[in-house]
């Protein structure tokens, strides 16, 4: 009996202590944080739009401007040049002017680019417009996840940043359908003269939505504190965490900022920081050189290699989009539960197996059955639960505040450069080395990802951004 009373008393004391420390009284305002994160993640829809729109427009562009093979490759990849430039300048600009203002500028630039891509009567006009749109995408691809990481409570940060990836794959999936729908409005001649214009022009709808909604989100509180404006940051943090935790956050963020001076490029290469930068840059390159965009941009081409007709290959492309979407949702659910490292390991092991099997199927000529399709879908699923979402989560959280903007920019830029390299070299590789060797090269890169993840990636699940900063400082 006395034991029961003792236990009850202990429970009472524990509850009282919790109340005093404010832990039970103050839960983060997830409705507010999620809404704000969704707005920022809309940048990902534009990213997905630009990734997928070309798959529908390419054939018509080719006919309209009488493009040769090299020009066709350029028609696909020219926007990536804009993305590289946009991500490169995103860090310096957003560290200086703030995340929100630069996101607004990027949305505007995207709008100009996408509308201008719909209007030209020359190929030169087309690719200049695409590069302008790409500039906007490059900026948002770095800033949307960064903004979400800076606004999120530690416990849900993975999920909120991964919303960006969900937006990307939703964008890709929707565009596959919109492209198909647009072609239903006219005959072949209309497709060549006008359908592609609508495909690009339609981007103005999500672009405008993103632009308008951005005016309603707050500036990143972490950026404000770094800029010595804690008074402006406090009300935003109070909205997220409640009064007491917000004050503690301000102090923690200030403390970490105090320990680091400057935020110069030189600081990026200081011991500790160097390792964080290496992790971000290598993972960004690996996300691309394991071949995902060979599938995203060229899925119909790959399926045609298996001997299938144009229509069937289009349907299978839509299946790829669907699997990508479903497994990204799964990743969102898992990233804060099982952690970044476990997801990366499982996904990259599975990608290695799938790519090896696809290569084998081509090598042995067993491509008429469903094996290639099944393993491509499995490969996309494995990418979606791992490298797809987790790259953006890791990039947005591993760098210390003073260099975060620049370091995220370098990682994101590496991703775009690697994307450009893969998408330019895939068609010639396919025709010279053949599909088996091409997929084995990607498979080898997936194996490198397994080893790199195992040896170099730290687990950051549940840690606050400030705890992660301290972790690097100890290395
Ligand atoms: C990658 C894109 C890719 C997309 C596919 C993103 O994380 O950065 O290059 O097209 O995933 O879902």
From TrEMBL:
One of its GO terms (cellular component) is plasma membrane. Gene3D superfamilies: MFS general substrate transporter like domains. InterPro entries: MFS_dom, MFS_sugar_transport-like, MFS_trans_sf, Myo-inositol_Transporter, Sugar/inositol_transpt, Sugar_transporter_CS, XylE-like. Keywords: Cell membrane, Membrane, Sugar transport, Transmembrane, Transmembrane helix, Transport. The chain crosses the membrane at residues 31-60, 72-93, 102-120, 126-148, 160-183, 195-217, 276-299, 314-335, 342-365, 371-395, 407-426, 438-457. Residues 36-461 form the Major facilitator superfamily (MFS) profile domain. CDD domains: MFS_XylE_like (cd17359). It is a multi-pass membrane protein. Its main location: membrane. One of its GO terms (molecular function) is transmembrane transporter activity. It is found in: Cell membrane. It comes from the Bacteria. Belongs to the major facilitator superfamily. Sugar transporter (TC 2.A.1.1) family. This is MFS transporter. It comes from Paenibacillus beijingensis.
